[in-house]
Predict the 3D structure of the following.
Amino acid sequence: MDSNLLIVAIVFALLLAGTLAWLLIRQRRELKKLTHPPGKSGQSADAGRSDNGGHGDPAGIPSRQLQLQAYERLLLLADRIALPNLIQRVNQPGLSAREMQSLLTLSIRQEFEHNITQQIFVTPEAWEVIRNYKDQNTLIINQIASFLPEDASGNDLNRGLLDLLVQNPKASLQNVVSEALSFEAKKLL
């Protein structure tokens, strides 16, 4: 019985490896088609260069364009995880404070993880700004939630978060983060 299970596992592994190899080959062929379109093989080496000196990604998209798109996505991320916007987007009446805390922190984490690959295209400093902003917002949510009574509602947590931001506008780094990302992006223009 164990040998049959081993054979099935080996066959499955071989099928999986074969499928992955086929997908890799297919991707490379498509990439080659994008970088060397038919009928353009007679172009000079400089004719395909972009305004960034030809230093683009393998698919021919200039790296500057990818970097600008990454900064755009990170600006959107900063806006989406700003506490007032986050509260407005995920608020669900009837939740307890603990449930709302979990929902808010989960939303921040998901937004961040959805954009984690953008760090490839931005400066380490820009990525650090985003990471710190995510951590700061999560910390604020957890701190305010820790001061609420056990029977507090999600609305109590949301009200506490918004009150903190109204009383102390410097508690939110959204403007600082947006300005830093915009500054980095403008260097590429």
